[in-house]
Amino acid sequence: xxxxxxxxxxxxxxxxxxxxxxxxxxxxQEATPAGEPFKVGFVYVSSVGDLGWTYAxxxxxxxxxxxxxxxxxxxxxxxxxxxxxxxxVIRQFAQxxxxxxxxxxxxxxxxxxxxxxxxxxxxxxxxxxxxxxENVGTGFGKIEEPRFVSGQLAGAMTETxxxxxxxxxxxxEVIRGIxxxxxxVREVNPEATVRVVWTNTWFNPQQERAAAEALLDSGAxxxxxxxDTPGPQQAAEDRGVYGIGYNADMSPxxxxxxxxxxxxxxxxxxxxxxxxxxxxxxxxxxxxxGWQDGVVDMAPVADFVPEEIRTAIEEEVARFKSxxxxxxxxxxxxxxxxxxxxxxxxxxxxxxxxxLSMDWFVEGVEGExxx
Amino acid sequence: MSSRxxxxxxxxxxxxxxxxxxxxxxxxxxxxxxxxALLCGGIILFLAGENPxxxxxxxxxxxxxxxxxxxxxxxxxxxxxxxxxxxxxAFRMQLWNIGAEGQLYLGAIFATGVALFLIPGAPGxxxxxxxxxxxxxxxxxxxxxxxxxxAWFGASEIITSLMLNYxxxxxxxxxxxxxxxxxxxxGFPGTPSLPASAxxxxxxxxxxxxxxxxxxxxxxxxxxxxxxxxxxxxxxxxGENPRxxxxxxxxxxxxxxxxxxxxxxxxxxAGMSEVAGIGHQLQRNLSPGYGYAAIxxxxxxxxxxxxxxxxxxxxxxxxxxxxxxxxxxxxPAAIAPMLQGTILFFLLGGDVLTRYRxxxxxxx
Lengths: 371, 364
Hints:
The structure holds two protein chains of two kinds.
Chain A: H1 2-30, E1 38-43, H2 53-67, E2 71-76, H3 83-95, E3 100-103, H4 109-118, E4 123-127, E5 136-141, H5 144-157, E6 162-167, H6 172-188, E7 193-198, H7 205-217, E8 222-226, H8 231-239, E9 242-247, E10 258-264, H9 267-278, E11 286-289, E12 296-298, H10 307-322, H11 327-330, E13 335-336, E14 342-344, H12 352-356, E15 365-366
Parallel strand pairs in A: 1-2, 1-3, 3-4, 4-5, 5-11, 6-7, 6-8, 7-15, 8-9, 9-10
Antiparallel strand pairs in A: 10-12, 13-14
Chain B: E1 13-17, H1 23-47, H2 52-64, H3 67-92, H4 100-118, H5 124-153, H6 157-177, H7 210-228, H8 230-240, H9 242-247, H10 252-279, H11 290-300, H12 305-327, H13 335-355, E2 356-360
């Protein structure tokens, strides 16, 4: 009996010893860096394989790594948006000597600001928020521009005049996107309406899909979305109707459904920021780039879209890319809200502040903003 | 007595329940299970082409290798401990409270509401005790509801407490998107920041805050209560032998309600400590499932309050260390939960070995 216990104790000691030696060997490896690379960290809310939001950011990270031989990148997936976890991960990156850290979800805003205060020599870019500091900038893109054009395409292709929109949360970013999309739909098809279902999650493939199915059951024949995964488009594919993708070109996942996708193209933006931070010219800013700047784009229109519709859409795309049209021309009055009251008078464009805090739906949207 | 049938009569072995497993046997089995889990996880990692020793070393150094790691592990320990204690006290009475997550949210909501709207100007020495009480009431109320439904209507508390989680989380969503939303935040969800008097004091420059102290005190108080008081004794009897409790004239219904309220109150305290100690506002995603992880904490601690301190710390270290796998080694994030799952599986499996033993039946 005694001997057996002794054996157990010895094996436990052996294990602890093993752990301790492995610990020292790892730190020894880390202590001998080859040269002094510029380290860029990325904090992701879902996995890089989500084929949506995080996938698009990771494509940007890869582009950044390819652009500069002396840049080394690291990332952490599936970081929860609660303050305890998010702040810990961001802090760990800063402590590990990362020079530039991108935090790519709205929920990381306060944690980013908190950590940045303790690491004044590190630069932080928070995607989609509104708080800045001397070493914290914000970055986002006018995805509403490609959403508007994709809305025109949806309006031209719908037969039931009912378009479904699977949306994550009733926050200004999402509301603005739904409004831009609906204005596009109604410009080519004033009869059509856009029905919104809230999922209250960014990332939940099953729930996103279920919401799309509910919209399809109620008669929608085009499904658009503001989520992190292609679930809604796959639901459209299975029912043989159309979908408008988001984040990345979703046509490979739903080839017979996806008309086009409003997509993020983070690479050029990340490269620009990293370049400026490396040569010391970066200053805190609130970046909100448009289609003309390349941070947002639209995937090619599907082959099965009739020729004349495709041509018209491509002409519209060219107008946005040249800057002739932009988010302000989209949100120029007259624009009425859901009750028919004109909220933006004729000829007047909405201001950045009005756009960034938008909390009402335009005419043609069916659905409610919880308040 | 409660022995099970033999596995195979020819070998004359049988599995029987160990009446009261010795403390040293329990500790040895737990340690062995942990070792086996690491070995098993290591084999999987090795087969996947990774270096298990490097991964374990990195996890260990991330969670406990420097003061910052230890501090972050303690930050993560706090809500797991408080909610885990709540679950443990209910489970002692065989009340299956699955609602710690919702009770945590209610505690957070009550504390936030009081701090923001009832006494925003109060100084810290008034504010902190009052929001503590508010969170106990909030969580306690959310535990009391399934308790009362069980006591007087026989409704399964498993279902009702679970369902109330969704109600609590959605109510919190409603508040942060609607009436409690910060008007300065451009329509983004989240309440305004709590007045600074409500922020729990930190330990030095770390994020470790007063909530950890509450957790340790609660563990001690519960331990004394369960061991030394009549009430603690009754809870055990009512849980393990309700019939005997009934004959002994113990007030079963009242105790069910009280124990569920106490269980909820502890989870509510966890919610308050996350709001007032870490985020300083009520927001979406307050808890990444602490209320569910609390069930694991309670079980692994064998419902022992002091054991819960250890287990909560271990689980927190696994989470904090798990970050390192991707951050410093660049391996897929899925490895961390895989290892955590393996370790939990072995620890719970080892638990069975301490409660049952295989004996040789004396030859016939």
